Amino acid sequence: AGIGKCVALDLARRNARTILACRSRERGQAAVEEIRAATGNPAVLLRLLDTSSLASVRAFARAVLREEKRLDVLVNNAGVTGLPFAITPEGLEQTFATNYLGPFLLTNLLLG
Fold first, then answer.
1. What keywords appear on the UniProt entry (predicted)?
2. Rounded to an integer, what distance in angstroms lies between the CA atom of residue 42 and that of residue 55?
3. Nearest to 38 by CA among 5, 83, 77
4. For residue 42, which of 31, 68, 91, 109 sits 20 to 30 Å off, Cα-Cα?
């Protein structure tokens, strides 16, 4: 939703192979189908990613590096605000993990 979906829509309109990295399979698949229908671009894909989980970030990065020949653009747009204080299963504060640590790790893993 929001800015991330608008960016994905614009990239797909430019005929780019576009990967939507989403926490929710249902919401992500709905966005993929909407973008494909709006652009006619079949190369819009869904991959699950929860940036609050470093294990999820590592698994996503491994899959992208294994499945994609190259990566031209990375848009780190995930973020949360206003959540009650919570600790992730990995022992990190949830907002800090989601907004900073996860995207930082993802970027560094994909740089190769």
1. Oxidoreductase
2. 29
3. 5
4. 109
